[in-house]
Specification:
The chain has a single domain, classed as 434 Repressor (Amino-terminal Domain) (Orthogonal Bundle), CATH 1.10.260.40. It is about 65% helix and about 0% strand. By secondary structure, it is mainly alpha-helical.
Length: about 100
Amino acid sequence: MKMYNPPHPGEFIKEVYLEPLEISYRKVADMLKVAPSTFNRLINGQSNISSEMALRLSKTLGRSPESWLIMQNKYNLWQTKKNLNLEKVEKLDIKSRKKHYA
């Protein structure tokens, strides 16, 4: 299923956890055992979720680590698709190559 303009995971964290629960990013950073500046960059979309952060978020906020990484990957892929010109990238013709090795 394609997602249209997926949110950055930090935006998701703000909207689903911080704002509704009225909890500060500093409190969550403390719970994650990361510097407040590190978590602030994440929730402001200035940094990506690493594998380590995915594990921390999973323990503190819930959801699986994989789901955090998938969310980040979908966001990154969407952003790249908007900005990358693939016009000159060539496709490998696999069908004709297979005939040579048969």
